[in-house]
Structure to design on (226 residues):
């Protein structure tokens, strides 16, 4: 069936460098995408979202890029900090559907 | 602002015992409500969702059930727990009628079955 997946299960980044977490989705009907951050023992926390009529959206230190042609989503974190260490999930949704499909997650490790 | 509460935070139960996990949302009306389970190091599996009081949609057939007795209360139950029910259970809410809105999660219940 259709699914959302991630290229890298674990990403190690030096503190201060930029991080890029990638996500591939296969459902071309998806029109809304979300990134979540989950710290150990806690629930996922909303970071940023993007709708399919956009290809880039920026937040505080984070940028999401959407390439609908190749069904690819990425999360860029600028000047990565130790507090950014967590598992990051991408998720997709289709207008009119109440359910969201989550990817399997990428673990980001920040090296001090 | 909206908040979501889940309890208990951790729970250890014997096989065959009943279960009741509770989730409440504050600061919003008529939210969509969701129960997920997350196995260790894995993604989120949707168990149930609800768009209104008494309206429950089940995604995965199993020995769990959900109920929504009040607008902002969502309960996950089981009559007899199995070893395979161990996991991290997450409740989430989103704005009613809008599917293109993020879900907001509670801090989960860690359930261990012995």
């Amino acid at each position: 069936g259709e699914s959302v997946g991630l290229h890298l299960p674990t990403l190690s980044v030096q503190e201060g460098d930029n991080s890029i977490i990638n996500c591939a989705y296969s459902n071309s009907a998806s029109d809304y995408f979300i990134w979540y951050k989950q710290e150990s023992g806690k629930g996922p926390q909303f970071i940023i979202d993007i709708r399919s009529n956009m290809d880039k959206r920026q937040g505080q230190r984070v940028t999401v890029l959407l390439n609908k042609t190749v069904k690819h989503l990425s999360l860029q974190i600028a000047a990565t900090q130790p507090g950014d260490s967590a598992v990051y999930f991408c998720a997709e949704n289709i207008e009119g559907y109440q359910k969201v499909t989550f990817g399997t997650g990428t673990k980001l490790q920040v090296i001090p | 602002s909206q908040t979501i509460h889940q309890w208990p935070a951790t729970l250890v139960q014997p096989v065959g015992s009943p279960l009741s996990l509770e989730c409440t949302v504050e600061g919003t009306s008529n939210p969509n409500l969701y129960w997920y389970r997350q196995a260790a190091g894995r993604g989120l599996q949707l168990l149930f969702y609800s768009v209104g009081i008494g309206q429950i949609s089940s995604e995965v057939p199993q020995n769990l059930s959900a109920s929504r007795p009040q607008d902002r209360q969502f309960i996950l139950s089981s009559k007899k727990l199995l070893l395979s029910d161990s996991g991290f259970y997450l409740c989430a809410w989103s704005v009613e009628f809008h599917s293109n809105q993020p879900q907001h999660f509670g801090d989960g219940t860690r359930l261990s079955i012995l």
Remarks:
- Chain B has a mean pLDDT of 92.
- The interface with chain A takes residues 6, 32, 42-44, 46, 49, 51, 57, 59, 90, 92, 94, 99-100, 102-108, 110 of chain B (CB under 8 Å).
- The two ends of chain B are 38 Å apart (CA to CA).
- Chain B has no helices and eleven strands.
